[in-house]
Amino acid sequence: EVQLVESGGGLVQPGRSLRLSCAASGFTFDDYAMHWVRQAPGKGLEWVSGISWNSGSIGYADSVKGRFTISRDNAKNSLYLQMNSLRAEDTALYYCAKDGYLPYSSSWYYFDYWGQGTLVTVSS
Amino acid sequence: EIVLTQSPGTLSLSPGERATLSCRASQSVSSSYLAWYQQKPGQAPRLLIYGASSRATGIPDRFSGSGSGTDFTLTISRLEPEDFAVYYCQQYGSSPWLTFGGGTKVEIK
Lengths: 124, 109
Fold this sequence. Notes:
The complex is a heterodimer. Chain A is mainly β. Chain A is 0% helix and 49% strand. Chain A has strands at residues 3-7, 10-12, 18-25, 34-39, 45-51, 58-60, 68-73, 78-83, 92-99, 111-114, 118-122. In chain A, the strands form two sheets. In chain A, strands 2, 4, 5, 6, 9, 10 and 11 form a seven-stranded mixed β-sheet that branches. A four-stranded antiparallel β-sheet of chain A has the order 1-3-8-7, with no helix packed on it. Chain B has strands at 4-7, 10-13, 19-25, 34-39, 46-50, 54-55, 63-68, 71-76, 86-91, 99-100, 104-108. The N and C termini of chain B lie far apart (36 Å). The model of chain B has no long low-confidence stretch (mean pLDDT 96).
């Protein structure tokens, strides 16, 4: 059974940093691209960032480019999101999601498994 | 960036009725790279459809997707009580920029 478990969320002041983690199990983690998707309270879904199986391709939404950094540790079956210079508009539930396309893909597709999310609140 | 517009914003229907949800793209979605998700309150989204018309594993056949180019449709043939939720479309034809529609809420009439 595929499991994605996010952690690291919390209350943080504007301008500060936070690092999210996602522990994956139930599939061959290092074969697939992975993503972070967020959802502001009461709002829709927004893709934040994606990383290919070997970290060779990385992409960001314009709203976070230059402030957020995605990374992965295939030896630990883990995905990370380093979030710097946080803003109030970054307040959201952050989901870790597995790319649903074929293994070893360098592009992004759709999301076939999701974690339950970790809540990030940016407020003074 | 491809912008996806979903309509209607809210659909009020009764169990057993047919639901038709629309997703319109601001430009053509290449290779029909469009997916649909269902999200219930307090839960993560669940993949329903990918490639515009392929059902994901375990999805009942009352859910079907169709369309190409800029116009896509999710149809639920007969609504079950568990189908009342919010539905999102997502395009991946302009990777690496993935975008979602704003969602359609299907509520009980």
